[in-house]
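Suppose you are handed only these lines of text.
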Amino acid sequence: MLRPLKGIFNSADYPDLLVGLGEPDDAAAWRLPDGRALIVTTDFFTPVVDDPYDYGAIAAANALSDVYAMGGTPFLALNVAALPPDLPVEILSAILRGGADKAREAGVVIAGGHTIQDKEPKYGLIVLGFADPEKMLTKSGARPGDALVLTKPLGFGTTTTALKRSLADPQDVAEAVSWMKRLNKTAAELAVEFNLRAGTDVTGFSLLGHAWEMAEASRVGLRFHFERIPILQGALRYAAEWIFPGGSSDNRLYYGEHINFSPDLDEVSQMLLFDAQTSGGLLLAAPKDRLEAMLKRAAELEQPVWVIGEVIEGNQIEVLAR
Ligand code: CO
Ligand code: CO
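From them, the structure of the protein bound to cobalt (II) ion can be written out as follows.
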């Protein structure tokens, strides 16, 4: 996710800046003299899991995801880290190894980085990628009639919060970790192959927060069907105990006014759709005439996809029970 610095830089002064300075999007995009778009993004955060290797891998998958969310291919990254001076060297190297292995899986080289000392650990990447400007996915490309497709289940926020409070079942944590570590690479390739124009990744602002950004940027409404939205089994239990990260409550406060929930949906169900995700899946808008072929190709590539709603006219998000 990238927050533009409106009012400090003027987009008219930078004709080659394709994305940035306008509506918020996943990454900045700059048109190179050879016609390609250079994609630039950064993301880093405090530990979400106990295992340092997994933390590094999740942070890297999450940072790379903003390039995938633009329909781009990442190629180069730098580490950004803030670490306590007394952190055992094995833990430090496990974090960096987790990030490096994930980058290598993505075909990305980490060429170095910068580390400072800080009480609470923070780790992530600056990532560069390339995209075809004609095939870029942005938040503004959704059109009424498109199907809304999600590529990872929800429930990472509530599960990692249960872990922090020592209330989580290790099996639930392992399931969430394996999803968070998963690259959005194949999902992005699928979107580009089928020439989709709208996409974003579901991260801290939750499914509904990121969906709202897409609705606003595309000047459309969105309709979701709760029953079709994949949610981790463990997350359903933790949510029922009202175990949510602070970010989820913030999301409800901030985006709630744009969302129309069916009266059949209880508060827990509503809150699950505001759950702050780390390294979530892509939310894609797929034109109906390409949907069936795309789902078939996704199955061949063993890329999970769920059709969870559709783009409609209007300027609201509706959530139906089924
Ligand atoms: Co993003
Ligand atoms: Co981000």
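What can we learn from it? The mean pLDDT is 95. Residues 52-68 form the longest helix (17 residues).
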